[in-house]
Amino acid sequence: MVAPSLLAADFGHLEREIEMINKSEADWIHLDIMDGVFVPNLSIGTPVVEAVSKISTKELDVHLMITKPEQYLERFRNAGADILTVHFEASIHLHRTVEEIRNLGMKAGVAINPHTAVSELEEIISYVDLVLIMSVNPGFGGQKFIPTSPDKIRKLRNLINDTNSNALIEVDGGIDETNAGMIFEAGANVLVAGTSVFRSGDPVKAIHELKTAK
């Protein structure tokens, strides 16, 4: 699966960008929500998510890179989020937050930063629908893929298998056609790609190449 990240889209022509994704082989649209506190950048909020939801025919994969994410769950559900991912590092009562996301009718995801070990997820892996591995330090698009990320993906795949979890593995950061196949082979299910899609000469073709990478 591929989830193009709107962080790299042309916001001056956002409707056109979303229509392009609608016509492509993309599975989800990935939306990065940044508060300038948890990560050193500001991005979009619920008004943009709501606007995207009115145009998109794809599921909205909303990634909260914010402090106190539990305060905003219902707002993002109301804005149109289908999948809501919070950071392990930002959630003090993670089990409660995950439970609330699911009670609100969304799929629940947990993201981990590059420095966070997969083993930290042992107590939550059976309760989530998705784990997002950050393969760059979050906050900005266009960064280089951290080369140790495939090993981390394999560790997570082993944890999922050992616990009979149904969680999908999503990977975000520095992904393009040169490493997509390796990431899938390591055990990932979903690739988030921003720059390599929206800054390419042919985004629809770029999405196809990511989905079929070997």
Layout of strands and helices, then pairs:
Blueprint: E1 2-4, H1 14-23, E2 28-34, H2 46-55, E3 59-65, H3 73-79, E4 83-87, H4 94-103, E5 107-112, E6 130-134, H5 149-163, E7 168-172, H6 180-186, E8 190-193, H7 195-198, H8 203-211
Parallel strand pairs: 1-8, 2-3, 3-4, 4-5, 5-6, 6-7, 7-8
Helix pairs in contact: 2-3
Written overview of the protein:
The chain has 214 residues and is α/β, with parallel strands linked by helices. The chain has one domain: Alpha-Beta Barrel (TIM Barrel). 34% of the residues lie in helices and 20% in strands. It has eight helices and eight strands, in the order E-H-E-H-E-H-E-H-E-E-H-E-H-E-H-H. Strands 1-8-7-6-5-4-3-2 form an eight-stranded parallel beta sheet. Helix 4 (94-103) links the parallel strand 4 (83-87) and strand 5 (107-112). Helix 2 (46-55) runs parallel beside helix 3. It is globular. The two termini are 13 Å apart. The model has no long low-confidence stretch (mean pLDDT 95).
Question: Structural class, from helix and strand content?
Answer: alpha/beta
| Overall morphology | globular
What do we call the CATH homologous superfamily? Aldolase class I
Unreliable stretches, pLDDT < 50, 5 or more residues? none
Question: N-to-C SSE series?
Answer: EHEHEHEHEEHEHEHH
CATH structural class: Alpha Beta
Provide keyphrases for this structure.
globular, alpha/beta, TIM Barrel, single chain, 8 helices, 8 strands
Question: What can be said about this structure in brief?
Answer:
By secondary structure, the chain is α/β, with parallel strands linked by helices.
